[in-house]
Amino acid sequence: MNLDTLKANVLNANLATVRHGLVKATFGNASGIDRESGLIAIKPSGVPYEDMTADHMVVCDLDGRSQTNLYRPSSDLETHLALYRAFDGVGAIIHTHSTFATIMAQARHPIISLGTTHADYFHGTIPVTRNLTPEEIKSRYVAATGDVIVEAFEGRDPLEVPAALVAGHGPFVWGDTLESAVLNAMILEEVAKMAWHTLTISPSASPISQDLQDRHYLRKHGENATYGQN
Amino acid sequence: MNLDTLKANVLNANLATVRHGLVKATFGNASGIDRESGLIAIKPSGVPYEDMTADHMVVCDLDGRSQTNLYRPSSDLETHLALYRAFDGVGAIIHTHSTFATIMAQARHPIISLGTTHADYFHGTIPVTRNLTPEEIKSRYVAATGDVIVEAFEGRDPLEVPAALVAGHGPFVWGDTLESAVLNAMILEEVAKMAWHTLTISPSASPISQDLQDRHYLRKHGENATYGQN
Amino acid sequence: MNLDTLKANVLNANLATVRHGLVKATFGNASGIDRESGLIAIKPSGVPYEDMTADHMVVCDLDGRSQTNLYRPSSDLETHLALYRAFDGVGAIIHTHSTFATIMAQARHPIISLGTTHADYFHGTIPVTRNLTPEEIKSRYVAATGDVIVEAFEGRDPLEVPAALVAGHGPFVWGDTLESAVLNAMILEEVAKMAWHTLTISPSASPISQDLQDRHYLRKHGENATYGQN
Amino acid sequence: MNLDTLKANVLNANLATVRHGLVKATFGNASGIDRESGLIAIKPSGVPYEDMTADHMVVCDLDGRSQTNLYRPSSDLETHLALYRAFDGVGAIIHTHSTFATIMAQARHPIISLGTTHADYFHGTIPVTRNLTPEEIKSRYVAATGDVIVEAFEGRDPLEVPAALVAGHGPFVWGDTLESAVLNAMILEEVAKMAWHTLTISPSASPISQDLQDRHYLRKHGENATYGQN
User: Fold this and answer.
1) Which family is annotated (chains A, B, C, D) (predicted)?
2) Which of B49, B53, C32, D84 is the most buried (most CB within 10 A)?
């Protein structure tokens, strides 16, 4: 992918998170990777969204070695890098403090699959990470945030459940493309809102059956998908 | 009814569900039937709403035999067909994942008639369907979803309570016309939101009296209706 | 007051309830009275808000004797008349199904004065009416709805607490002018929303002290009011 | 600072509170101080926001001695003055009745630091003031409201936790500049909303660790801040 295209797509994804109400103030950041060149583009730190152009996007490689840039990258860069290094198929990552996903992260409440809205996009429970240790917080906080997300997906395919709730913080969401990562971030917020309300009126609500979860997830994903026009 | 009129009306109903905030992403679909010709028009599968025109609407008969179409129909077509076959007076069907109706479906919580807002449009409890069996999910999921809705209305007039909550999924709503189905879908969401909040602050809240339910429903429906200018 | 002015003001108040999100579909109605002539103007029944003009407003006297009108009045007319007859200083009445005021009416939960937002506009508890009897519902439902509101204010000044929650139905709100009735309807909805949430997280929350209630209510109302520029 | 600049900034901050949905009707007021001249500009009392210009802003000194003004100041002026006198580094103060901050104030529920959204802007618990005594309410209500806020910060740096919830009333928020006070008022409302929902689904939720609170607060504040482009 052309680097200018990547930067334009990353800009668009960042603006989409604001337009969809997932990001307030300057909370949140989106990045994308071109797996061929190994280059990543990410939002700059603390630049107001209304002033942001593709040229503000910061480019670096998988080890965070910066290319020529006008700006400093998002303060969450090291978390993005840890996820790109660990999760092969991921092409884009979005971090937000969207209201209900953050509420569930603050409550340390994994989001179980309570309905087909969830199952259409997330194949199983959306996990909450463990707490960071005091040492991790002090010495390598941002990178360790990536590590505990990776830990939470041990033995699982991160593209089947493309989101994690960082305990006491908020969601990180991903996808194979920037478009799918934005969509997953929107759906996560709606799924989190529905889960919060479902569990408040019905605290013992249980997940829908594995059969129903599979039926919905697999009609939209994988080689036997039937949804859409292709 | 002219087929072009039907397709235009179905397009408008689909767009109305988005405009009224009942549908996010591509969740949701509306269809209409011309009872004289027996032809149904329904939204195509997975086409973005902003690109949709009347020509995208997919036409078929009551057994799903497709007419000449450019697109594949909504993946929920078989549910719509089951309802049109079982419910004579129904002229239009809408499926959404609107937030509070879906929450009540996830909580498997029927919506009792807690107030006159409910009673003006729904004459009694809005039911939740039974769970599908593993066999139903695997072999004929979409049609079986229609069957369990029909089951939930055994002995009841589906036009008096023009909505059902599919357990763990979301609402299906109907009406004699596309306009009334859209209105019913909007009112259902508001009624579900009010019910959720009423029952959370007052878990033992009970339905309004049958007299009051009748008074409100019948002033707007049936031959003795007094509401409006006609 | 000129009758054309009254009708224009009543139209504006009806449109304001929609603009402020207090009314969905055609739920709701506003009326005003010219106490000098004894004439009332009220919204017509079931006319879509987007088509409404001042000429649609229906005029009658305090006994409901209709003047020359193009349309039938709101189906809630008799409730408005009962309130105008019983409450001398009331110049305008608004009925809505605004979300949280209706939720509290469905929960049959009076709104106690939990904060100064309440106290600035409502001097004490906003009452819930008693249930109507089966006979009242069958024989004179709409007028009886007015009667139970009047009952709930026995021994109280209705202008000091310009709203009531009709059990299982929704709010009626009033004021000395159409402008103040619209404002009271907006504040009621916000106060109801805050009360619902306060009581859900803190079920034993109690009213603010009478001193504090008086301090806030009286700085905005009565002869010793100090608020504003006059 | 030029007095005209101060008045323009104060006007903008007042309008921003409306634009961000923190203020309904005429609830709320913003003021700013020029510490060099000791002059304060504050919103006038009861003037509709849509008519407000910089010339409506009311100017006085720290003891409330009025300069030449066209209007009467906000009825909350004495609270602002008490805070400016007690809190040296404060350059701007905003009072709103924003929904969730007011709900927590009505519930008398301090907002503990449940997540990094809170910790990025508020270094510790946002306190609730004690109740005013009947004497304070009757004799010097507005100034006493300022005093109980000051009391709640005894031994704490008010710029580290730039907000207080006045019991049974609502939030007062501040900052070193008008821009930061507006941002703090927005973040407070979001943090209060998240806290309400976190505690409702998880009543025993506890604060994030002091290490994590420090990590987030100090990356945005103080001499070692690393956030942004400077």
Assistant:
1) Belongs to the aldolase class II family. AraD/FucA subfamily.
2) C32
**Nearest-CA distance from C211 to chain D in Å?**
6
> What mean pLDDT is predicted for residues C185-190?
97
> pLDDT averaged over chain C?
95
Q: What is the sign of the dihedral through the CA atoms of D194, D196, D197 and D200?
A: positive
How many distinct helices (H) and strands (E) make up chain D?
A: 7, 6
Residue D87 is classified by DSSP as -
Report how far residue D211's alpha carbon sits from residue D127's, in angstroms, rounded to the nearest whole number. 20
Under 8 Å between Cβ of C46 and C26:
yes
Q: Give contacts of D117 with chain A, Cβ < 8 Å.
A: 27, 97, 102, 170
User: What is the rounded distance in angstroms from the CA atom of residue A7 to the CA atom of residue A70?
Assistant: 13
Q: Which helix (H) or strand (E) holds B105?
A: helix B99-106
Residue D136 bridge partners (DSSP): none
Handedness of CA C193, C196, C200, C202 (dihedral sign): positive
Strand C92-95 and strand C39-42: the pairing is unpaired
Whether C169 and B116 lie within 8 Å, measured CB to CB = yes
Place of tokens 């609730």: D128
Catalytic residues of B: 120, 227
pLDDT digits (tens, 9 = 90+) for A94-149: 999 999 999 999 999 999 999 999 999 999 999 999 999 999 999 999 999 999 99
Instruction: Tell me if C5 sits within 8 A of C22, measured CB to CB.
Output: no
Q: To 10 degrees, what angle do helices C178-201 and B178-201 make? A: 50
Q: Are B113 and B49 in contact (CB under 8 A)?
A: no
Q: Rg of chain B over CA atoms, in angstroms?
A: 17
| Closest by CA position to D47, among listed D11, D93, D79 | D11
Which parts of chain D register pLDDT below 70?
A: 227, 230
Query: Half-sphere exposure of residue A120, counting CA atoms within 13 Å on the CB side?
Result: 23
What's the rounded Cα separation, in Å, for the pair C165 and D19?
31
D108: left (phi over 0), alpha (psi -120 to 50) or beta: left
The sign of the dihedral angle between the CA atoms of C148, C149, C153, C154 is negative
Which chains, if any, share at least 3 CB pairs under 8 A with chain A? B, D
Domains of chain B: 3-220 (3.40.225.10)
Residues of A with CB below 8 A from D114's CB? 106, 168
Chosen from A57, A102, A104, A138 to mutate, greatest number of chain D CBs within 10 A: A102
Q: How far apart are CA A37 and CA B228, in angstroms?
A: 67
The total of other beta-carbon atoms located within 10 Å of residue A70's CB is 10
β-strand partners of D34? D39
Q: Is A227 among the residues known to form the active site?
A: yes
Q: The complex's ipTM?
A: 0.95
C147 vs C172: CA distance, rounded Å: 12
β-pair partners for D44? D73
> What are C42-58's pLDDT values in tens digits?
999 988 889 999 999 99
- The rounded distance, in Å, linking the Cα atoms of C69 and A135 is 79
Catalytic sites of C, residue numbers: 120, 227
B102-160 per-position pLDDT tens digit:
999 999 999 999 999 999 999 999 999 999 999 999 999 999 999 999 999 999 999 99
Element (H, E) at C122: none
Cβ contact, residue pair A170, D117, below 8 Å:
yes
Instruction: Give the least confident one: A117-126, B36-45, B65-74, B105-114.
Output: B65-74
Residue-level pLDDT at B158? 97
Q: Do A75 and D116 touch (CB under 8 A)?
A: no
CB contact under 8 A, C194 and D71: no
In chain D the first and final C-alpha atoms are separated, in Å, by: 23
Query: What amino acid positions of D are annotated as catalytic residues?
Result: 120, 227
